[in-house]
Specification:
Length: 239
């Protein structure tokens, strides 16, 4: 077990339970470190943060403070406080995905975001660890926990598809939702239909990745998520 894993497990253990002992609902949000050309993307990120706050849902995300990532975190943190947000970021990305406006520079010349603005942060060594630990928080979360993909680039798309593939392989049973703002993910939705029509994806598995056009709709889709009966029934060890 790495030091990063030990630190995160301690954090998860202290944050996963509410007063009645039930695990808290956790949503991992994948999204861009850019704001996007249309203001609708930023507003959707803020609205998602507000909707999560209204439903008492915690956020785990990539730890950036710029673009859509920062807006989701700030919006939720402003309402429900820093304990509701956990960012996990690789050390190499700190200087690219963080803004110094709300933060200080430490002895390693890294920007440390203000916890009161962006929530708690864990810095890890690599991308694989970041994704693994974000997923583990969701897997340990309460009912309605899952993954939401807001608008983003290659990294966002890769994270969405990896998580979807893990579901298809039977590694986890959490829902994955595309929050489709102004048709941003329409091409992916059309591709899923084509992949099923061409026999590359089982028709039942096409719905592993769900499409929603509002934050409230995305949260509801995670609550109502049903595991496909066509996923692979495989035996996995420790992922």
């Amino acid at each position: 077990m790495t030091a990063d894993s030990t630190i995160l497990q301690a954090a998860v253990a202290s944050q996963n339970n509410i007063s009645n002992g039930h695990p808290r609902t956790k949503i991992c949000v994948y999204c861009g470190a850019a704001p996007g050309a249309s203001p609708a993307h930023i507003e959707a990120a803020r609205a998602l943060g507000r909707a999560m706050a209204a439903n008492n849902i915690d956020l785990v995300y990539g730890g950036g403070t710029v673009g859509l990532m920062g807006e989701v975190a700030k919006s939720l943190c402003a309402i429900n406080g820093p304990e509701s947000v956990h960012g996990i970021i690789p050390e190499a990305l700190v200087k690219y995905e963080r803004d110094s406006t709300y933060g200080t520079v430490n002895e390693h010349n890294h920007i440390v975001p203000e916890e009161s603005v962006y929530g708690r942060t864990t810095v890890v060594k690599d991308m694989h660890t970041r994704k693994k630990l974000m997923a583990e928080e969701v897997f340990a979360g309460g009912p309605g926990s899952g993954f939401i993909g807001l608008s983003g680039g290659f990294g966002t798309m890769e994270e969405i598809f990896e998580t979807t593939t893990w579901n298809q392989l039977g590694i986890h049973n959490r829902g994955i939702v595309l929050l489709n703002i102004e048709g941003y993910w329409d091409g992916i939705v059309q591709w899923m239909d084509r992949a099923a029509d061409e026999g590359f994806v089982k028709p039942a598995n096409k719905n592993i990745l769900v499409n929603a056009d509002t934050p409230e709709g995305a949260i509801k889709a995670l609550r109502d998520y049903q595991v496909s009966d066509a996923i692979y029934q495989l035996q996995w060890g420790s992922q």
